[in-house]
Known about the structure:
This is F-box domain-containing protein. It comes from Cryomyces antarcticus. With 370 residues, this protein is mostly helical. Residues 1-7, 76-121 and 170-191 have low confidence and may be disordered. Helix 8 (125-147) packs antiparallel against helix 9 (153-167) and helix 11 crosses helix 18. It has helices at 17-25, 31-37, 42-50, 52-63, 67-70, 79-87, 98-101, 125-147, 153-167, 194-203, 206-226, 236-239, 243-260, 262-271, 273-285, 287-290, 305-317, 324-331, 335-338, 342-350, 358-361, and strands at 177-180, 186-189. A hairpin with a 5-residue loop joins strand 1 and strand 2. Strands 1-2 form a two-stranded antiparallel sheet.
Amino acid sequence: xxxxxxxxxxxxxxxxxxxxxxxxxxxxxxxxxxxxxxxxxxxxxxxxxxxxxxxxxxxxxxxxxxxxxxxxxxxxxxxxxxxxxxxxxxxxxxxxxxxxxxxxxxxxxxxxxxxxxxxxxxxxxxxxxxxxxxxxxxxxxxxxxxxxxxxxxxxxxxxxxxxxxxxxxxxxxxxxxxxxxxxxxxxxxxxxxxxxxxxxxxxxxxxxxxxxxxxxxxxxxxxxxxxxxxxxxxxxxxxxxxxxxxxxxxxxxxxxxxxxxxxxxxxxxxxxxxxxxxxxxxxxxxxxxxxxxxxxxxxxxxxxxxxxxxxxxxxxxxxxxxxxxxxxxxxxxxxxxxxxxxxxxxxxxxxxxxxxxxxxxxxxxxxxxx
Length: 370
């Protein structure tokens, strides 16, 4: 990091600490802006460092008031409060949650995030940068989906939040490897533990599984329409392969989306297209060896997450897996999903049933097998 200047146009040294903290917490959070703030003045840099936890808690409460319900995987200590609210049927106005609006009573577990402020179990600027990027990713994906004529945008956003939960392994966070963010910030790449992801899928209720399956279908449509590289249906590479090869490609895409989350999709759609498209092409080219036993241990390959997702839904509906797509299309006509209420959106992300005795009542009249 460059050395902060001893003087700046604004006399930060003349202001009391409380005033500086108040100014900073009211500044719209953008990761690059806050990184640059630390280079402005030594006194300001010291305040940001010494009061990082209090500043970040205040910013989160004011600017990201729904982070606990939107991304439970990176706010696990809020999960008990979220579950309590969900069990009461969810709030009419999510911003009115007393458990969350009082910043001093909220603890965020970001032990796996490092960067500005260092590794910590408390709120940090690096943690806020991850939250900011997730919301930005969701907003961009929603805009792209709207341009492609995809309906049910609120449900699609919920599905992407569920994908984030899957990449966070539900409530557990596996060992992760650092990945550079822009402007010197660092995030962790949550590839995750396969068994933990499978367990998360099998714990989801029918509505959550239906939402994720539908998200895969719509993400494929997005990638084929606007994606870069071989997956784009209008690309020369796509046209020169067989239908069987196309099927393998879409299975590989699904697997990468389930493992890497919405950021992979947005990268493939243009945010960071070249590395994402290259990674997809490489994984697709390796599909033959991916189905072989391990050359070192002889263990069979792991079952694809996409297969596990469909198997979990088929099991809960009591149908064969070949009928999953038909049942997903049918279940999407359920009033709870066609007109998604805010409280039901919270429940879906939390992995809760959106209807009492959902396995029976939610699918009644929607289970198709014959």
